[in-house]
Specification:
By secondary structure, this protein is an alpha+beta fold. It has one domain: 3-Layer(aba) Sandwich (NADH Oxidase). Helices cover 29% and strands 15% of the residues. The protein has a 4-stranded antiparallel beta sheet. Helix 2 packs antiparallel against helix 4. The longest helix has 16 residues. It is globular, with a radius of gyration of 18 Å. The model has no long low-confidence stretch (mean pLDDT 90).
Length: 180
């Protein structure tokens, strides 16, 4: 694949990744979209159940309708593409989280941002043809787009210090080793 963007290593991606709600209108090349989907497909799952389905959505009218099915996704139609993540017969909803995180990290590697949108109403499932049985759950619709220059992160993420959240052997015991 011939890309002009610098490809980042995984730790750098994790350090720099942010939720992005504004996107360049440029289409995402199919080859990169395939890599994002493949990252989701390769995620680990409980007992290798692989309970996910990914629906690629480019139609602006569909994205507008989906945006009306949640309180948190008004920016969804601004993305050139979105991927709906649906679980089927999932034992653990965390399986979806694993696949979604993989897709988010691979997208970021190529300068593509997203934001995990939640709490879609059942109408959203109807819009994208997800069966309405109890076995299917729409977890998210992830909007993907290239990150505008003004949205690129600067500085450090605001996170609790590692020593405030990492313990050794028992809760409350400080680490006996030093992390940078």
């Amino acid at each position: 694949m011939n890309t002009k963007k610098k490809i980042l290593d995984v730790e750098e991606v994790i350090r720099k990744r942010r939720a992005i709600r504004w996107f360049k209108p440029d289409p995402i090349p199919d080859e990169i979209l395939c890599r994002i989907l493949e990252a989701g497909r390769l995620a680990p799952s409980s007992k290798n159940s692989q309970p996910w389905h990914f629906i690629v959505i480019r139609n602006k009218d569909t994205l507008k309708e989906l945006a009306k099915c949640t309180y948190t996704g008004d920016f969804l139609p601004d993305a050139p593409v979105a991927i709906a993540v649906v679980l089927e017969n999932a034992k653990l909803e965390s399986d979806a989280a694993r696949a979604i995180q993989n897709m988010i990290l691979v997208a970021w590697k190529y300068g593509i941002g997203t934001c995990w949108i939640t709490n879609f109403w059942d109408k959203a499932k109807k819009i994208i043809g997800v069966p309405m049985t109890g076995n299917f759950k729409l977890v998210t619709v992830l909007p993907f787009g290239f990150i505008p220059e003004e949205e690129k992160p600067r500085g450090k993420k605001k996170r609790k210090p590692l020593l405030a959240i990492a313990h050794e052997e028992k809760f409350g015991n400080p680490l006996s080793f030093h992390c940078k």
